[in-house]
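Title: Prediction job returns without error message
Component: structure pipeline
Severity: low
Priority: P3
Assignee: unassigned

Description:
Job completed but the reporter wants confirmation the result is attached to the right record. Sequence as submitted:
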Amino acid sequence: MSKPKNWPPSLPYFKAPQHGKDLTPTQLQFLRTKPNIITTKTTTSTTTSNSNSKHQPQPQYHLHEDTLLPLIPASSPATETPCPRVKILPITNPLHPAHGQFGLFAAANILPGELIVAYLGRLHGKGTTSEESDYDIWLEREMDVAVDAALGGNEGRFVNDYRGVPVVSFSPTSSSSSFAGGGGGGGGGGRGKGRPNARFGNAFCAGLFPIEYQ
């Protein structure tokens, strides 16, 4: 299996999120269900070509998403493994709190607010949350689903750019997703910063369903 450069040799590299055996059927269904798409109906009036009389209003249907989640295609660069948009490098700046560790750096030009890379790991319920893991983050609190990349994952687990501003900061959404989207960073200097280089958020990818964790 192809792995990114500087990937720890003893750590499993995931190409898809994996689910723990503790997840309930309801939680698994939630992870595999695309956010709702509903239709709204508007009406418009039309006129005939040879008179000024109006016909009855005609319905026109418009699709819109009943969710704030971005829907990510399976072919998105953010879901490629290894991800060509980021690279894992040692943090060499002595002023960085994670100096000597590895961080995630951009390998291509990335626009502000753009989804960079999926955060893959083991999906699990609240009951198996690890108090010792530095890689365990909520995916959806209402469903009691979290994702832990301590024992395996992808490049997303190397987001390591605290410097006084948390990078794991989820925005509220009206629905949830099949995986957590993350961002690169890891570089830079100084003892503090005004905002994180990357934020975590939720997205749904129809081609990235979880498989059972071994």
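Comment from assignee: result matches the submitted record. The chain has a mean pLDDT of 70.
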